[in-house]
Every structure is written in C-alpha cells, then in structure tokens.
Specification:
single chain, alpha/beta, Glutaredoxin, seven-stranded mixed β-sheet, 7 helices, 7 strands, 34% helix, elongated
Length: 191
C-alpha cells in the first residue's frame, strides 16, 4: 500500500515560519524618533467634534452638515464686548469673500445667547457667516477653548477643519485677533 504525499500537512509549519519572519522583521526595524514639532502636529490633527448650536436667529446649526464636504474656519470669540465690537469678527467680516472662496465656510461661536447675538446684529453688525451661541459652554469645553473658572470664559481660538473632518490647524489663545493672512494661509494648506 502506497501512501500519497499530503501538502496540507506542510501548511501549518509554513504559516508559523512566515509569522516568525514577520515578527522578527518588525522587532528589528529602527525606531523613528519624532521631533517635538512633528509630535505636536500629530496631536493637533484630530477629528472635529460635531455639535448642534443655535445661530443669532435661534435656528439650529449642525456641524455634521458641513463635515466632510467643506473646509471650515471655526472661531471662538469672547462675547464680553458683543459681536459688533469684536475685532476678530471684524477681520472675518472684511475678509469673508477670500475666506469663503472655493466653498469654504466660516463659523463664529461665543457663549452669548442667541438674543445677545441678535442684538449685536441690530447695532449694524450684520455678519455674512453664522454666529452661534454656546451658552452652556459645552462646545467650547469639548474643543478645549474655555477656562476652568466659574463661570467659564471663552479663550479666543481658531480652528481649520479640512474636508476629511479633521482639525488641520488650531490656535488657542495667543495673538488675538488672528490676522487674515494667517487664516487664509491655513485654510489654503488644509486638504
């Protein structure tokens, strides 16, 4: 009686040999050290947290409608002087045509109520972009631009969200107002 050779018997040892080879290769690869700037850039790139807020007309605004479809410039501003007197919003208003070119969207958020934002509009500051109310501080807290005091205060900040829905650039605090040139450059650099 002759026995036939069964190749299925060799599959398991061959698979073990391949797995051992891949593990050995991975373990012996040199580790890449990231610079502080590269590490910071990786940490800064995170998915934009979706939110639902109300605009100056008390109409609901859902960020999800824009994520993945548009580049977004989202600016958190201090409402203490009102939207009408906010220097950052005035820069956004003057540069709106450039900022919103190519389907980009500009969104401003503060902790003022929709009523307070509406009153600023009555003072002659009609903005060509959404001015949203984060009166319970939830969005500003989630995005990392609120102080921890009572009551929390907005830390003036700006975020560029690329078409993939990822924050590609942000500035929290620092030089305010952020110059139009900086905002345009970062919007243009985003995917």
């Amino acid at each position: 009686m002759s026995r036939q050779f069964k190749p299925r018997i060799l599959v398991l040892p061959f698979a073990a040999l391949v797995i051992f080879g891949l593990v050995w290769f991975k373990v012996n690869q040199p580790q890449i050290e990231l610079s502080d700037a590269a590490r910071e850039a990786i940490q800064r790139r995170r998915p934009a947290a979706p939110f639902k807020l109300h605009d100056q007309q008390s109409q609901p605004f859902r960020l999800e409608r824009y994520l993945g479809r548009h580049k977004l410039l989202i600016v958190f501003f201090d409402p203490s002087q009102g939207a009408a007197k906010n220097a950052q919003l005035q820069i956004l208003k003057r540069g709106f045509d450039q900022l919103s070119a190519h389907g980009r969207k500009v969104i401003a958020i503060s902790s003022a109520t929709p009523y307070a934002n509406r009153e600023s509009f009555k003072l002659g500051s009609d903005f060509p972009f959404h001015v949203l109310s984060d009166a319970d501080y939830s969005v500003g807290t989630e995005w990392g631009c609120m102080t921890t005091g009572e009551p929390p205060q907005v830390i003036p900040s700006a975020f560029v969200v690329d078409r993939a829905g990822v924050i590609s650039w942000s500035q929290i605090g620092g030089a305010t107002p952020i110059p139009l040139e900086t905002l345009l450059r970062e919007l243009n650099n985003a995917r």
